[in-house]
Amino acid sequence: MKKLFRRFFLVDFLEGLWVTFRNQHPKYIYTEQYPAERPQIAERYRGAPRLNINPENNETLCISCNLCAIACPENLIVVGWDRNPVTKRKDLTTFIYDTSRCMFCGLCEDACPVDALELTQDFEMASYTREGQIWDRRMLEEGPYPVKYKS
Known about the structure:
Layout: H1 2-8, H2 11-22, E1 49-51, H3 67-71, E2 77-83, E3 90-98, H4 107-111, E4 117-119, E5 134-135, H5 137-142
Antiparallel strand pairs: 1-4, 2-3, 3-5
């Protein structure tokens, strides 16, 4: 009988509503002023990828070993290279990174022997098209440009 009474009068539903409304008091509400004030990012957060550049000669640190592409479980990294006949080394020609499919696991970052690829704390990677999520070498070296809003 008690079970039927609780079901008929929706007691469980009303108790749930009471919990919701009890916690919606204005003193419990916290609003971040996001565009004007940037949020604090956790130290170990993995966000936008970046190809690091050697500050001495202003060239990328990538040695075109392709280990990042091999380590990636999503197969979203494409490394293109040409053999330099003078130095007999690989020269990086293209580096394509598809951020739309990336799960930001950091395996590519761990596989890189020269720390050329890293996942930064940049989190603003939105674009209006899918093609905007496919980053080329230039975009990876420069990084995303967050919009500065005026308050």
